[in-house]
């Protein structure tokens, strides 16, 4: 039961983080601000440092990476999350979020949020990297190398 | 903040160091390689290899649930109070602590469930009825050097035992005055180097054979990995949740770096069940590849990862 409560609490926290970041991204999108603008407070209390402008449908944005810090109040106190948005041809090309959490719980929530958010691993062929050891599942480096040798042999003969 | 592109830029391949002596052998169901990075005469190397394999055999004789003549098999047949071997203390102490921290998920009482699911001495891999995993206090009373089994129970220390054995072998080698070596037991790695030279270890892609998702660099540390893509059969793999009696699917692979392989190996299992924050009392670094290949890592995990950034 406790796990259920903790899960739903966690989901709520993560949901509010999603909202926070979306709001921050929207604000970043509609404000004509300068790259690397140091501060914009998140959620309900957005107060951009740049002069306020009204968004229009044909607004053009300068390509670049913009950063802002979003703040929110958790049960343990005030927490913040740094969000970075890269705009290219008026399109959000990339976003990243960096945890600035004070409390361990917030750190955990933010880490999970950030992890699920945008960084995905991709594979690289082991032949392109010189390695004496590989760690993964309980598969050995030797087994790994043997399998690789077989694959290479198959590739050569086919 | 570094741009994502800098993380994926290819690095020029570097040639690994050549060891002065290498032992390769199979033991406890995995392949071992031990590299010695300093001069060693042949007779010493031969004597060392014998000592190493003897020590592994002694460990296996106590802790393997696969051999009928092991201490663990005896416990499964005959309840009672057993005086544990001297080397059991770090292992059982850690299990006892982690059992509490993981709400019973990390438990030596997982042995019967693994067997029920088909992960038995013969690798039959044919799941039968899955019996519930008993609670620690219902079955075990542990006060080193004694372990009392109140009823028969098949123990399994596989979640930390291999890492611990690698530590033990590292001690054995260091005890012979050898300061620079590397032990790799199926991807559980201990490296020692007198000159603090780092060791580069590829992190195997959990979905694509022949690919790695990053390169970790360890220096006088231990690295253990765990993944569900091998030693997997049907709906199961070698990691099982004692409460749900299923194998976790939310994580594809993970790695832990710690000062000892015992700790790294044990934490690698715990992280399938609890968040890193719950294990904060231990000193370690981790990297987790989730089901959707998103990456979670501690800031200090010493690795270059091959990543791409996209909206999830």
Describe the overall structure.
The complex is a heterodimer of chains A (158) and B (312). Chain A has helices spanning 2-30, 104-117, 141-157, and strands at 64-74, 77-88, 91-99, 119-121, 124-125, 133-135. Chain A has 158 residues and is α+β, with helices and mostly antiparallel strands. By secondary structure, chain B is an alpha+beta fold. Chain B has an 8-stranded antiparallel sheet, covered by helices on one side. Chain B has a 3-stranded antiparallel sheet with strand order 3-5-4. In chain B, β14 (285-290) and β15 (295-297) form a beta hairpin. The two termini of chain B are 20 Å apart. The model of chain B is unreliable at 1-6 (pLDDT under 50). At the A-B interface, β3, α2, β4, β5 and β6 of A face β2, β8, β9, β10 and β14 of B. β4 (119-121) of chain A pairs antiparallel with β17 (307-309) of chain B.
Question: Keywords, please?
Answer:
heterodimer, A: 158 residues, three-stranded antiparallel sheet, B: 312 residues, alpha+beta, 8 helices, disordered N terminus
Question: Summarize this, please?
Answer:
The complex is a heterodimer of chains A (158) and B (312). With 158 residues, chain A is of the alpha+beta class. Chain A has three helices and six strands.
Mean of pLDDT of chain A: 60
Question: Would you tell me the structural class of the helices and strands of chain A?
Answer: alpha+beta
**What is the β-strand count of chain A?**
6
> Helix fraction of chain A?
25-40%
Helix-strand string of chain B: HEEHHEHHHEEHEEEEEEEEHEEEE
């Amino acid at each position: 039961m406790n796990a259920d409560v903790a899960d739903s609490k966690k989901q709520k926290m993560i949901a509010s983080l999603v909202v926070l970041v979306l709001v921050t991204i929207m604000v970043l999108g509609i404000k004509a601000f300068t790259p690397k603008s140091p501060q914009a407070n998140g959620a309900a209390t957005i107060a951009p440092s740049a002069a306020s402008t009204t968004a229009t449908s044909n607004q053009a944005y300068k390509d670049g990476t913009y950063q802002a810090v979003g703040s929110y109040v958790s049960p343990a106190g005030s927490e913040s999350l740094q969000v970075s948005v890269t705009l290219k041809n008026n399109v959000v090309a990339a976003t990243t979020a960096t945890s600035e959490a004070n409390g361990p719980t917030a750190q955990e929530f933010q880490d999970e949020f950030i992890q699920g958010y945008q960084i995905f691993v991709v594979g690289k062929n082991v032949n392109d990297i010189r390695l004496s050891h590989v760690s993964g599942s309980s598969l050995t480096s030797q087994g790994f190398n043997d399998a690789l040798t077989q694959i290479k042999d198959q590739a050569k003969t086919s | 903040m570094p741009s994502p592109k800098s993380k994926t830029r290819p690095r020029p391949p570097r040639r690994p160091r050549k060891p002065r002596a290498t032992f390769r052998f199979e033991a406890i169901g995995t392949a071992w390689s031990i590299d010695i990075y300093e001069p060693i005469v042949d007779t010493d190397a031969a004597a060392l290899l014998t000592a190493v394999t003897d020590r592994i055999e002694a460990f296996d004789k106590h802790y393997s649930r696969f051999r009928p003549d092991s201490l663990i098999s005896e416990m499964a047949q005959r309840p009672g109070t057993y005086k544990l071997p001297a080397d059991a203390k770090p292992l059982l102490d850690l299990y006892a602590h982690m059992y509490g921290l993981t709400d019973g998920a990390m438990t030596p009482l997982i042995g019967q469930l693994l067997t029920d699911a088909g992960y038995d001495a013969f690798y039959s891999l044919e799941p039968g009825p899955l019996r519930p995993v008993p609670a620690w206090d219902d079955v075990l009373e542990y006060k080193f050097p004694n372990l009392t089994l109140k009823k028969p129970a098949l123990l399994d220390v596989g979640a930390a035992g291999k890492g611990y054995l690698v530590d033990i072998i590292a001690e054995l080698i260091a005890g012979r005055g050898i300061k620079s070596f590397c032990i790799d037991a199926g991807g559980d790695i201990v490296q020692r180097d007198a000159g603090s030279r780092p060791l580069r270890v590829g992190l195997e892609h959990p979905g694509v054979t022949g690919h790695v998702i990053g390169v970790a660099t360890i220096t006088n540390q231990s690295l253990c990995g765990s993944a569900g893509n091998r030693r997997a059969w049907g709906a199961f793999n070698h990691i099982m949740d004692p409460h749900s009696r299923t194998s976790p699917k939310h994580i594809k692979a993970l790695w832990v770096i710690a000062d000892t392989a015992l700790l790294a190996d044990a934490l690698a299992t715990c992280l399938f069940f609890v968040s890193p924050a719950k294990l904060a009392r231990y000193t370690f670094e981790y990297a987790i590849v989730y089901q959707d290949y998103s990456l979670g890592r501690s800031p200090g995990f010493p690795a270059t990862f091959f990543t791409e950034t996209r909206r999830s």
